[in-house]
Design a protein that fits this description.
Structural class: alpha+beta
CATH architecture of the largest domain: 3-Layer(bba) Sandwich
Strand content: 25-35%
Number of strands: 20
Shape: globular
Helix content: 25-40%
Radius of gyration: 21 Å
Oligomer: single chain
CATH topology of the largest domain: FAD/NAD(P)-binding domain
Bound molecules: adenosine-5-diphosphoribose, P-hydroxybenzoic acid
Largest sheet: 8 strands, mixed
Distance between the termini: 34 Å
Strand order of the largest sheet: 6-5-14-15-16-13-17-20
CATH class of the largest domain: Alpha Beta
């Protein structure tokens, strides 16, 4: 088999790039090691930057997002009984869209099907070859049969645990990582959200977040120690702890119910430099991870895909490699700003075992400064809605 762009990973990054390139007449094949049902079973955040929303429209998959997604022009920061409204519209001129990542992925799969795009599922042992040549290839196994795909470029959209980043020699890479000393215990419940907008709560007992998927599907998180086990958290225990971390009025309004999903996820910041090696380009979680506090995981993947889409289109239209040659530097420049913001929001809102009394006062004064400064709120808002591509 032969294609122009071989893509490893059928998550949102790989599917979005495949869809965008196909609409420009550029041929792609996506190799996904899981089944489609498995990919669509993942529960993930869904706060979309405007830039990401525009990218979905450019890919021809923005309609359901506009119909079913919710435009949010603000969110709340809570500390003890105080609630600060962050007016995104006032401080950034725009808003974010709350629309689940699973729905984004579902829409992308539907669009790939509609265009006859090639997504090969259950592709085992995907292996890139000859990445330093101008004729790289990908091999993969379906059952006992091994297949090879020749391509011009290989795009690693295979997430943090994928094969693409590991195909770059370790001495050619620099890895940057911060693992946080806590995790997020998340619950999905068929209950009406406690607030029309998200609430990020700082509390001495730990961080809490009130989010939603739609008017009847709520998503809540509480910070927990890394040694916590999800089986030790009954629904009742979760709801009681969440209420203790929220302002009284919010806790009293909270509608609890049976969890339909409950899990603990670790938090890390991670960046791999460079995001290119020969004809291999990394995008999304394959190259970087952020703690979910700033809702930047999917959005930072979107920025990479925007840069790659334009660079690859330029190459196939003009033969110029300049966009591809600039990709790693351009993508990393924006990603490090997203890393900073995600790290800052995480540092601001979580309790850290070693922070001590001084650290707690710094957090409280950081929040107090936000409560008192239009400039600080503008900075927060422009990062939250998404920096320009
Ligand atoms: N071969 C083929 N496919 C693979 C391999 C492999 N060796 N390793 C991983 N994959 C697939 C995974 O099964 C997954 O479907 O690659 C896909 C990677 O998707 P994501 O992990 O969702 O990463 P990405 O598409 O970059 O999307 C980033 O996902 O994890 C969230 O918070 C993150 O919201 C962000 C978004
Ligand atoms: C979510 O709804 O899962 C969510 C929302 C915002 C975040 C993180 C997670 O910052």
């Amino acid at each position: 088999m032969k294609t122009q762009v071989g893509i490893i990973g059928g998550g949102p990054s790989g599917l979005l790039l495949s869809q965008l390139l196909h609409r420009k007449g550029i041929d792609t094949i996506v190799l996904e090691r899981q089944s489609r049902d498995y990919v669509l079973s993942r529960i993930r955040a869904g706060v979309l930057e405007r830039g990401f929303a525009r990218l979905l429209h450019e890919a021809g998959v923005g309609d359901r997002m506009e119909q079913e997604g919710e435009a949010h022009t603000g969110f709340y920061l809570a500390q003890d009984d105080a609630l600060l409204h962050v007016d995104l519209k006032k401080h950034s001129g725009t808003n974010v869209i709350v629309y689940g990542q699973t729905e984004v992925t579902r829409d992308l799969y539907a669009a790939r099907d509609a265009m006859g795009g090639t997504v090969i599922h259950n592709a085992a042992d995907v292996t890139p070859h000859d990445l330093q040549s101008d004729a790289p290839s990908l091999t993969y196994r379906i059952g006992d049969d091994t297949h090879r795909i020749g391509c011009d470029f290989v795009i690693g959209c295979d997430g943090f645990h994928g094969v693409s980043r590991k195909s770059i020699p370790a001495d050619k890479m620099r890895l940057f990582e911060r693992v946080y000393p806590f995790g997020w215990l998340g619950v999905l419940s068929r209950t009406p959200p406690v607030s029309d907008e998200l609430i990020y709560a700082r509390h001495d007992r730990g961080f809490a977040l009130c989010s939603m998927r739609n008017r009847n599907l709520s998503r809540y998180y509480i910070q927990v120690a890394l040694d916590e086990k999800v089986e030790d958290w009954s629904d009742d225990r979760f709801w009681a702890e969440l209420k203790r971390r929220l302002p009284r009025a919010v806790a009293d309004a909270l509608v609890t119910g049976a969890s339909i999903e409950k899990s603990i996820a670790p938090l890390r910041s991670f960046v791999a430099e460079p995001m290119r090696w020969g004809r291999l380009f990394l995008a999304g979680d394959a190259a970087h991870i952020v703690p979910p506090t700033g809702a930047k995981g999917l959005n930072s993947a979107g920025a990479d895909i925007h840069y790659l889409y334009h660079a690859l289109t330029r190459y196939y239209e003009t033969g110029q490699m300049d966009g591809l040659d600039r990709y790693s530097e351009t993508a990393l420049a924006r990603n490090w700003k997203t890393q900073r913001f995600s790290w800052w929001m995480t540092s601001l809102l979580h309790t850290f075992p070693e922070q001590g009394a001084f650290g707690q006062r710094i957090q409280q004064s950081d929040l107090a400064y936000l409560f008192s400064s239009e400039a600080a709120l503008t900075s927060l808002a422009e990062n939250y809605v998404g920096l320009p591509y």
